[in-house]
């Protein structure tokens, strides 16, 4: 039953993406993808703090602290702790694969990175950051259908994942669906009010979608 439900959701996602792309002239879409300057998606900092093993309780506290953070420095400290919990895995093999996948992405060897992340997800399909890292890779490859499918997997496991929500917004914006982009960015900023550049994107998109205030 659960597998059938997921299959239906994936079909709906594919239909949504097809409808969105169909609304954009083919020449315009091709030009946009060819000239695209990749935006920096929210990602974990290079150095992460040590965090407790109790993920659920720790995350609930940290998301509350993130919203209440009095300044940017405090917010970034809390954000780093959230990323550290998300990246935790009891599997040394998964940790090694993730490290190598990140190195391959930095080296722009996306085929190797994809193979490594595929292996991560096969080994630990419950590991949120495996799906999120692969969603990012698919986005950078302009493979929006697969990126959206992986973002759906991330948000099903962690609805507060501001990185995935921001990525969803960027994909919808690239596809010209400003309304869904605005919704995704607003969901991201509601979770993490300190995301870089997202408030400016919300301001621009809200003026386009909803018009200027009179």
Q: What report would you give on this structure?
A:
It is built from eleven helices and no strands. It is mostly helical. α3 packs antiparallel against α4. The longest helix has 21 residues. The chain is globular, with a radius of gyration of 18 Å. The chain starts with a helix and ends with a helix. About 16% of the residues have low confidence.
Helical proportion?
over 70%
Main β sheet profile? none
Could you report the average pLDDT, rounded to the nearest whole number? 82
Shape: globular
How widely separated are the two ends? 50 Å
Low-pLDDT windows of residues: 5-38
Strand content: under 5%
Mind telling me the C-alpha Rg? 18 Å
| Tally of contiguous helical segments | 11
Task: List the quaternary state of the chains.
Answer: single chain
What is the string of SSEs from the N terminus onward? Answer: HHHHHHHHHHH
Count of DSSP E strands?
A: 0
Which structural class do the helices and strands define? mainly alpha
Short account of what is shown:
By secondary structure, the protein is mainly α.
List keywords for this structure.
214 residues; single chain; mainly alpha
Write the layout of secondary structure elements.
Elements: H1 2-22, H2 26-34, H3 55-68, H4 72-87, H5 92-106, H6 110-123, H7 128-140, H8 144-157, H9 162-174, H10 178-191, H11 198-210
